[in-house]
């Protein structure tokens, strides 16, 4: 057969082939803030007003690269918020927002880093006398316990097993790897101080003993006291329950102490219900997990949302 005829047949065969191209799904992203508030809350577990507030705070840090088809600050925030709040597979979040799974992973890490940098603006103890007196007033309204400025406790956040040297130090008394997170909250369940750097095997009392907040109390920075459980030592600025109350006065003290300190327990419960990744575990690398714990910023800036 003539060589030219063969070439012509090959060209005809090529013309018959259909070029299979991956559909360009990145060009049709829907602005989630165009949803009704009910639909927005269903998808992201927070109100649209709350999401807009977060976008407004982070917008300057989330300015996107104009090349290609970049993610807007709105999409970046809701991707991270949905992934943390619902703790779903990143592929599902990616499909909902017309991006790839690696993009969702990078976005969550980026938003976590920005929140970590900005956390001190929102997570802070009351400093002025008026702020401290208002905090003390709210705590006293619970069970008439005077001069309480915060309730303190620690909670374990499960993390992926750490295989590096020292990984066994992340295993807590319950037998799983975790980060032991110290939190101080107010009567409105708003987190005022948080420490996320300690491994799961470290005791609560050591975390407080080596934290900066203890130094501030010893320096007389606050006019009130903290309430903690019996795992902490009793000091002039940290009151703990009596282990063996024998008089009616001591029993009343314990009842008032328990009811007032219970705010931090409720804070943990609400925190973990709003962000299911804290309830079920964070399975990224350990340093990213520590930064993502500071997405508590979402909750501290607007705890009633």
UniProtKB/TrEMBL annotation:
Could you state a single Gene Ontology molecular function term?
hydrolase activity
For whether the record's keyword set contains Hydrolase, the answer is yes
The UniProt entry's GO CC annotations, sorted and at most eight, read: cytoplasm; nucleus
Q: Which residues form the DDE Tnp4 domain?
A: 152-282
The record ties this protein, via Pfam families, to: DDE_Tnp_4
Q: Which UniProt keywords apply?
A: Cytoplasm, Hydrolase, Metal-binding, Nuclease, Nucleus
Query: Which domain of life does the UniProt lineage start with?
Result: Eukaryota
Q: Where in the cell is it found?
A: Cytoplasm; Nucleus
Cofactors that this protein relies on: a divalent metal cation
Which family is this sequence assigned to? Belongs to the HARBI1 family.
Entry function: Transposase-derived protein that may have nuclease activity. Does not have transposase activity.
Protein name, UniProt field: Putative nuclease HARBI1
Q: What is the lineage of its organism?
A: Eukaryota, Metazoa, Ecdysozoa, Arthropoda, Hexapoda
């Amino acid at each position: 057969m003539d060589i030219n005829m063969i070439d012509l047949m090959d060209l005809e065969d090529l013309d018959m082939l259909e070029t299979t191209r991956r559909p360009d799904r990145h060009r049709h992203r829907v602005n989630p803030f165009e949803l009704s508030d009910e639909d927005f809350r269903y998808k992201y577990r927070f109100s649209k007003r709350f999401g807009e507030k977060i976008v407004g705070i982070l917008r300057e840090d989330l300015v996107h690269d104009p090349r290609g088809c970049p993610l807007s600050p709105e999409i970046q925030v809701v991707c991270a918020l949905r992934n943390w709040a619902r703790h779903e597979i990143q592929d599902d979040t990616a499909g909902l927002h017309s991006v790839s799974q690696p993009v969702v992973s990078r976005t969550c890490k980026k938003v976590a880093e920005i929140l970590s940098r900005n956390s001190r603006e929102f997570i802070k103890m009351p400093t002025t006398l008026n702020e401290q007196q208002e905090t003390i007033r709210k705590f006293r309204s619970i069970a008439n316990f005077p001069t309480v400025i915060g309730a303190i406790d620690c909670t374990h956040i499960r993390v992926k097993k750490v295989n590096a040297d020292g990984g066994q130090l992340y295993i807590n008394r319950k037998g799983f790897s975790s980060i032991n997170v110290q939190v101080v909250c107010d009567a409105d369940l708003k987190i005022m101080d948080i420490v996320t750097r300690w491994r799961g095997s470290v005791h609560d009392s050591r975390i407080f003993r080596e934290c900066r907040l203890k130094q501030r109390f010893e320096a007389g920075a606050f006019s009130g006291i903290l309430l903690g459980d019996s795992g902490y030592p009793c000091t002039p600025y940290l009151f703990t329950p009596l282990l063996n109350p024998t008089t009616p006065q001591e029993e009343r003290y314990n009842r008032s102490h328990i009811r007032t300190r219970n705010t931090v327990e409720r804070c943990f419960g609400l925190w973990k219900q709003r962000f299911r990744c804290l309830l079920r575990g964070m399975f990224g690398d350990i340093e990213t997990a520590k930064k993502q714990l500071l997405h508590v910023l979402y909750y501290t800036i607007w705890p009633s949302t």
